[in-house]
Amino acid sequence: MDLMTHSSTFLLPNPSVDNGPAPTYVLVVLNRNLPRFTPLLWKHAQLRICADGGANRLYDELPLLFPDQDAVAIRKRYKPNLIKGDLDSIREEVLGFYKDVGTEVIDASDDQDTTDLHKCIAYIQDLPNLKNQNVCVLVAGALGGRFDHEVGNINVLCRFSSMRIILLSDDCLIQLLPSSHHHEIHIQHNVEGPHCGLIPIGGPSTSNKTTGLEWNLSDTEMRFGGLVSTSNIVKGEIVTVQSDSDLLWTISIRKE
Length: 256
Hints:
This protein is of the alpha/beta class. The protein is built from 6 helices and 15 strands. A hairpin with a 6-residue loop joins β11 (205-211) and β12 (218-222).
């Protein structure tokens, strides 16, 4: 079984690449509170997309991260490449502002069966210039607020399980670890941890093995209604995970 490596170096000012091709980061902004490190994600991303009302968050909240600078200048500097979604949440003045500064807008209101995040990920997946790239999608504002929205975002991880997608909030990140691979997670101790968790998604996970945790799993079954590895602690520089089912990996993000 192939090995898949993971690292949260996108939370560092200058990400390093240990093995393999450098990631091509794409940032998607959702309609929840922006993480305080959004400008850092923006810097690393080669493509920036707002999912409908995410444009309101960008317009309203990003200038607050630069209180000593002119708000309009900040909005022009941090203009997304694209706004996509139902366009039922974005305010008219926000839509007009970004259109005036050159942001592309795609009205996808004809599709009422998928979320705005789903629409954005499908768009990214179909971009020809990203076909042969090591794409990693960073989703800002993916957690917090309504629980059904959070579940919808997690469902997108499962719907696009072949893509690297990381859901981010101020407090933590979540990503899918597909059972098709063994996983090696390189911990960035200065920006993340120590609290972490592994959660079975889609059904019971009958065999799980880990290293690098305070409470490692050794051929352990996990299921809702039984054992779920929450409130675990990372101990090593590298965490390894093997499972017969897809798992969610989550780790806290440091605030200092």
